[in-house]
Write a structure and sequence with these properties.
The structure is a homodimer. By secondary structure, chain A is mainly alpha-helical. The longest helix of chain A is centred in the middle third of the chain and has 31 residues. The structure holds a DNA duplex.
DNA sequence: ATTTAAATTCATCGCTTGTTGAATTGTCAA
DNA sequence: TTGACAATTCAACAAGCGATGAATTTAAAT
């Protein structure tokens, strides 16, 4: 009864190996977009399945229960982002040797990879940045996921800042880092708020404008607090 | 059949006018705490009713449907906060006349009322600050609620900053304001992240430490970008 | 050719969701 | 004292929730 002209509705599809597990990625991408917009509890598996063009049961088949899916979505680009930030920092360190890297360059190594990502063809990065803002500001997810996937990177950047600002107390460095993290989160959450706030003068999606001002803004803040 | 010794379970309670609508406030306070922690969709009316020690139906009776309740919760302290920020700014302006208020004082007028609120006896302010972070970073709620309840204040503070930084382009001012808003949000979201990140050195609930560094940090950022 | 495993759909489970109408009890003005 | 109204509980509603086991089809391994 198999091998009919029209493909069966049920059962394994006549898989070209090209779209092998391409459905898995469709699920992740749709989940990324929806979680970023509505948060964990604001997304139902049925909405997600519909957005991904996939049956509900397939989500569980690929990614297990909802929480695990959320973690997978968050982790995916965290790893990529960490690597890019790290290589940017290493490059700056190499360029500066034997001197310590100046503060601006450290901030730049931290922020530019986000700008590049957001301006890339892959629309998913925009969603991921909004998701990052959601997680970072959530008392439920923040301490769990941010620590799990980003703390290692924090240590590296704090160490670099410590060398750039030798007079700074550690507490100063961590607090300033925290301000930077907050400014970054909101800016790349892309909520459209600045558009309304500025009566149309500034645009949320003008990443160039956002970053070009943000880097000197943050660097000056660090210096003020940590060079006193 | 009324007037039995034990008060009836159903029907209007033997109201002392003291707790008149005190149940309404209990609902708002519980809602504030829960929405701040779990977001709009993460809170069910039954959980809320339970936390407030109240029947589910009473929520709708007092505040209408869920969305309207959310708006009411958000609006309540927005008004208070706006007033306090405004009087702080007016005081700074009076103290500085005929000169424009220096940047630090403007930032201070914007941020200190939050510190005072968070350090007050009213625990609700802590929850409200976390709620503010949630709303501010949400693409769904941010542009609606933030604009509705805070845009008027933005205009006033931007005008003050414009006078303090006469060389600045308006776009610079709005972007810097946005960075400030983000840094503030995350800091007062009180997620406990900085505690983990700093290996226990800094504490999320050390508001004094947070603000004393934040004000010079932000002010220096403004100057750097807007005095070039 | 047969068996095993992978990928998919479908139907359904037991619970939970926001909301509402009816019933009940108390207050206060006429 | 009667009647309007305010405040509360209770029970139920249709819809939606996350999860899963069974059935089905195809691909790969033997």
């Amino acid at each position: 009864m198999s091998r009919s002209k029209t493909p069966a509705k049920v059962g394994r599809p006549r898989g070209s190996e090209k779209d092998k597990s391409e459905r898995g990625e469709r699920i992740l991408n749709a989940a990324e977009a929806l979680f970023a917009l509505h948060g964990y509890d604001g997304v139902t598996l049925r909405t997600l399945a519909n957005a991904a063009g996939v049956d509900v049961a397939l989500i569980n088949y690929y990614f297990g229960p909802k929480q695990q899916l959320f973690d997978t979505v968050f982790k995916r680009r965290a790893q990529i982002l960490n690597e890019e930030r790290l290589t940017a920092l290493r490059a700056a360190q190499e360029a500066a040797t034997p001197n310590p890297v100046p503060v601006e360059k450290i901030i730049e190594a931290f922020l530019r990879p986000l700008e590049v990502a957001q301006e890339s063809d892959d629309e998913g990065w925009k969603n991921y940045c909004a998701l990052l803002a959601y997680v970072n500001n959530s008392a439920v997810w923040g301490p769990v996921l941010m620590s799990k996937h980003y703390n290692e990177l924090v240590d590296v950047f704090i160490e670099a800042l410590r060398q750039a600002l030798p007079k700074a107390a550690d507490a100063d460095l961590y607090w300033c880092y925290h301000y930077m993290s907050g400014a970054m989160s909101l800016t790349f959450a892309n909520t459209g708020r600045i558009d309304k706030m500025s009566h149309g003068l500034c645009r949320s999606d003008d990443f160039q404008a956002a970053y070009d001002r943000m880097i000197p803004f943050i660097a000056a803040g660090f210096r003020q607090v940590c060079e006193a």
